[in-house]
Amino acid sequence: MSQLYFKSSPTCEYCALSRNCTENINNTSAMQNVQVLTHKIYHKGDTLFCAGDAFNALYIMRSGSAKASATTIEADEQIVDFYFPGDLLGTDGFAQKQHAHNVSFLETSSVCYISVNSVNALLTHSELGRQQLLSNMSQNTLNQQQQLMNVHKMTSIQRLTGFLLDLSHRLAQRGLSSQQFTLSMTRIDIANYLGMAIETVSRLLTSMQQQRLIQVQRRHITLVNIPEMRKICLSDLLGQTEGESDGMQHAMLSPTTDYPLSSIGGEGRFY
Amino acid sequence: MSQLYFKSSPTCEYCALSRNCTENINNTSAMQNVQVLTHKIYHKGDTLFCAGDAFNALYIMRSGSAKASATTIEADEQIVDFYFPGDLLGTDGFAQKQHAHNVSFLETSSVCYISVNSVNALLTHSELGRQQLLSNMSQNTLNQQQQLMNVHKMTSIQRLTGFLLDLSHRLAQRGLSSQQFTLSMTRIDIANYLGMAIETVSRLLTSMQQQRLIQVQRRHITLVNIPEMRKICLSDLLGQTEGESDGMQHAMLSPTTDYPLSSIGGEGRFY
DNA sequence: CGTGTACTTGAAAAGGTTCAAAGAGTGTGG
DNA sequence: CCACACTCTTTGAACCTTTTCAAGTACACG
User: Fold this and answer.
1) Mutate to test the interface with A, among B67, B71, B137, B261 (most CBs of A within 10 A)
2) Closest protein residue to C7 (Cα–C1')
3) Which stretches make up the HTH crp-type domain (chains A, B) (predicted)?
4) CA-based R_g, chain A, Å
């Protein structure tokens, strides 16, 4: 029926379907059945969809950020993912033809809307589209498994450090600073996502600041010693390196963001 | 090119692609480009594929059981899933075009082999096939998230109880007894999967037996008081109900396996 | 019948949570 | 412009669940 087409925008180059986009734009014969995607602005606290809502569309973040959460029977929430520009959203709906998550925005955000009809058309007609969707969904599962593994095998310091590095990496992929950023989520969100008490998050951030690993001021974070943070992720050596933090902090002056590269439309997580 | 076709077998009715199977069999015109799937026998400890192996095929368990594990950088393993007859396997390969897991068998097992070509053909030509695959993969992610949520919100007693109920439920769906079964995995596997020490698993099983919730003898498990086990999953009341277990154990005489129903090809987990 | 692997059990230790209280930034209305 | 209410955040101390370490038991296989 129709192929997907995104109006060009600064965000598009990071979009989960950008390669597909480009393919369509370059393929003039395909231009005839192109469907211009609509996008919409949401504000902090707005919900994109709730668990149980009919599965009508997939979404792509254009700007801003969002969180997806599931709800337990006892009605407490579990945040399962955060989304940033370019991320594909809503594939939780394929399982039961209704959404399984609540997605809400952490700040003013803009999202593209892709109706299920468009998705079906894409799957029917575009080999690349199929690949991208399957890859993305497969990667989602792997990311969740990685997350599970982290909870099982890593201490809370390692998890929090990994979380910050992951954020840094994801932002860097989108052309933003990998060393300085503003958290769009609260401590409560972070704690919930990482499966710890918010007091623990707070204590650990303070501790990391004291060790000159990060600089933290409310939501504003600066990663001061990324190499050291990476080491911590691999083996928890906090507590052993108490006194000698002064000799370390200068190593960060060469801000080589040499993260392992991966395509946006189904990227792995970095720890 | 070709559609998928499974030789009829007792297992097929529980297969992840059975509806698709039936569709093909009933559609005589589709029979011309049918591809008979091959299946192969594996033994305990054999590996189906390893992380890094080229992604050549999907697999469906016909009999037996298997486990999928990921490996951390520190080389310790994390079991991410167990598989039983009818389960679809190998979709971890879509993300990077190579497998991300190691899959090995827990007992003598038989699996169907579906080459990626067949999968592509299925996706191209069968709307139902697309639906099933996407649903299955979406459900995989949801299951992993559920698992993550369990680790964050539930005590170890709740997780282990939930694990046993989940096994019971999955076996029941396959026409086996939901009350008595033999674990094909070791305590080590269970502990690894649930993210606890094997000593904890051992202690909890003993404790549950003392409370007349289960009967356990090495790998052989009998669920004695399923209703009570369900309650424990919802709210951890072990420790409070120490002394009065005698009045409870008779409630299980009506073994109504009234689990919430769901289709095999993308089922949710039951806790 | 011995050896190895899987499993169980006990006691001490650790990591993280919970409870309690206080500090800091934000917005509202007088 | 300040005071008040509010939410988000930090910090301290006691507590608790689960882990770790250390033996010991039991079943399976040659």
Assistant:
1) B137
2) B202
3) 154-227
4) 20
Q: How far is A151 from chain B (nearest CA, A)?
A: 8
Say how far A188 CA is from C10 C1', in Å.
38
Burial class (CB in 10 A: 0-12, 13-18, 19+), B107: middle
CB B141 within 8 A of CB B105: no
CATH architecture of the domain A154-266 equals Orthogonal Bundle (1.10)
A160 and B CB contact within 8 Å = no
pLDDT at B28: 38
Nearest CB among B96, B138, B151 relative to A148 is that of B151
Torsion of CA B46, B49, B53, B58, to 10 degrees: 160
- Domain boundaries, given as residue ranges, for chain A: 3-149, 154-266
How close, in Å, is residue A145 to chain B by CA atoms? 6
Nearest to B153 among A72, A120, A134 (CB): A72
Partner-chain contact B78 A234, CB within 8 Å: no
CA distance B9 to B65: 17
Contact at CB, B142 and A95, closer than 8 angstroms? yes
Residue A244 has pLDDT above 50, yes or no: no
Q: Are A221 and A164 in contact (CB under 8 A)?
A: yes
Contact B16, B10 (CB under 8 A): no
The C-alpha atoms of residue A224 and residue A113 are separated, in whole angstroms, by: 38
Phi, psi of B242 (to 5 degrees): -60, -55
The pLDDT averaged over each successive group of 10 residues in chain B (271 residues) is 42 54 42 57 91 93 92 82 93 95 92 88 85 93 94 93 94 86 93 95 94 90 93 69 34 28 48 60
Q: Is A162 on the interface with B (CB under 8 A)?
A: no
CATH number of the domain at B3-142, out of 3.30.1360.10, 3.40.50.300, 2.60.120.10, 1.10.3720.10? 2.60.120.10
